[in-house]
Amino acid sequence: MTPMLRIRDLHARAGEKDILRGIDLEVKTGEVHAIMGPNGSGKSTLANVLAGRETVTVTQGDVLYRGRDLLVMSPEERAWEGVFLAFQYPVEIPGVSTMYLLKAGLNAIRRHRGLPDLDAIDFLAMIKEKMKLVEIDQSFLNRAVNEGFSGGEKKRNEILQMAVLDPALSVLDETDSGLDIDALRVVANGVNALRSQHRSMLVITHYQRLLNYIVPDRVHVLSGGRIVRSGGKDLALDLEKKGYSWIEQESAADRAGARPVA
Amino acid sequence: MADLGMAETAKEQYLEAFARLQKETPARRRSWTLGLRRDALARFAEIGFPTSRQEEWRKTSVLPILRVPFRPEPDFTANGFTPEAIGRYTFEPWECTHLVFINGHYAGKLSRLRPLPEGVVIEPLSAALEKRRDEIEPHLGRHAGIDRHPFAALNTAFMQDGVFVRIPDGVAIDEPIHLLFITVSPDGPVVSYPRNLIVAGRGSRAALVESYIGPRHDLYFTDAVTEIAAGEDAAIDHYKLQRESGRAFHVARVQADLGRYARLASWNISLGGELARNDTHALLGADGGEVRLDGLYITGGSQHVDHHTLIDHASPHCASHELYKGVLDDRSRGVFDGTIIVRPDAQKSDAHQTNRNLLVSEEALVDTTPRLQILADDVKCTHAATIGQIDEDAMFYLRTRAISQETARNLLIQAFVSEVLHGMRIEPLRAGLECLLFTRLRKGHGAGVEP
Ligand SMILES: Nc1ncnc2c1ncn2[C@@H]1O[C@H](COP(=O)(O)OP(=O)(O)OP(=O)(O)O)[C@@H](O)[C@H]1O
Ligand SMILES: [Mg+2]
Question: Is ipTM > 0.85 here?
Answer without folding.
Answer: yes
